[in-house]
Specification:
Helices cover about 35% and strands about 25% of the residues. The chain has ten helices and 14 strands. Helix 1 crosses helix 9, helix 5 packs antiparallel against helix 10 and helix 8 packs across helix 10. The longest helix is centred in the last third of the chain and has 18 residues.
């Protein structure tokens, strides 16, 4: 097995909690470099995780000939320019969600990576949950009849203050949007994977409780091309609700929380509960799949096209809410 050598661009919360250790703990992968503008915080991060090469400029990391792939975990406004640099340097690109600020930027990322013949993936890691894969199998077997509707509620309890790490999520120029882009995008990606294209979006995106430039609350009503409907609520500053349900003509599938390990199956008047725990580190299956895509010259399971389709739905929601 050829070892995939990674550079990590951005050493914030998601990198510290999951991404760095996911790379280090996945066989056949090595985290050899990290980048952060603040040199003191960079040293603290790299010392804690024994990362040998340290860069305060992303372009310098891109020039490291030993780096095979980069994980981009920076504010969304940086995703396209850093993907451009990576592709030009022949590095494969795995980028945090949402993929980019808008649909046009997603398209350019896809184009530059295709031209450079490097893989492009987006970090919608929930797609690798065994629970979600079980839901997909049940739907394919018609276990709850014809699906009628899907619903999700998602939030983050974080109330971000100016100067705090991650506050960029509330600044439109850095994030492109608020709760919908940050936490809602994960659920939209799941919706699209399970049920296909979304034909119509009705939405309210508003700020209720916080003094942010972006929405702290979004509510979407969706019509899928297959005929079924969907609803999505997403919030900043709520106490982490995480509800997911699919209603069919013969029953329901429920995961509350979706990030948990229990799938409730209701059909023909009976209920069963299956236990399907996710990986201890949610990002590790994502890293393993992307590395395998590099080795076998294939598309990753969550590729740039999927990231772009997710951004299209969010763009339509923002347009409708104006």
């Amino acid at each position: 097995m050829n070892t995939i050598r990674w550079g990590l661009i951005g050493c914030g919360d998601v990198s510290r909690k999951r991404v760095a250790q996911a790379i280090q703990n996945t066989p056949g992968n090595e985290l050899i470099a990290a980048c952060r503008r603040d040199s003191d915080r960079l040293d603290e991060f790299c010392d804690a995780l024994s990362i040998p090469r340290r860069y305060t400029d992303a372009s310098a990391l891109m020039k490291d000939i030993d780096v095979d792939a980069v994980y981009i975990a920076t504010p969304v406004r940086e995703h396209l320019p850093q993907a451009r640099m990576a592709a030009a340097a022949g590095k494969h690109v795995l980028v945090e969600k949402p993929m980019a600020m808008d649909v046009a930027e997603c398209g350019e990322m896809i184009e530059v990576c295709a031209t450079a013949n490097v893989r492009l993936g987006v970090a919608y890691y929930r797609r690798f949950y065994p629970l979600l894969q079980r839901i997909e199998d049940l739907l394919k077997s018609n276990a709850i009849g014809t699906p009628l509707a899907v619903s999700a509620v998602t939030a983050t309890p974080v109330a971000m203050q100016p100067g705090e790490e991650g506050h960029w999520r509330t600044e439109r120029a850095d994030s492109g949007g608020g709760a919908l882009m940050d936490v809602g995008s994960h659920r939209i990606n799941v919706f699209l994977h399970l049920f296909g294209p979304i034909a119509e979006v009705k939405s309210i995106c508003t700020t209720v409780a916080a003094d942010y430039e972006v929405e702290d609350t979004a509510a979407l009503l969706l019509r899928f091309e297959c005929g079924m409907v969907g609803t999505l609520q997403c919030h900043f500053g709520a106490d982490d609700p995480d509800e997911f349900a699919i209603t069919g003509t013969r029953g329901r599938l429920r995961a509350c929380p979706l990030n948990g390990d229990q799938l409730i199956i209701e059909r023909d008047g009976e209920q069963t509960i299956e236990t399907l725990p996710p990986a201890a580190n949610f990002c590790q299956p994502l890293i393993a799949d992307f590395a395998d895509a590099i080795r076998n010259n294939r598309s990753p399971r969550v590729n740039g096209d999927e990231g772009r389709r997710t951004n299209i739905v969010m763009a339509n929601a923002y347009d409708d809410s104006q």
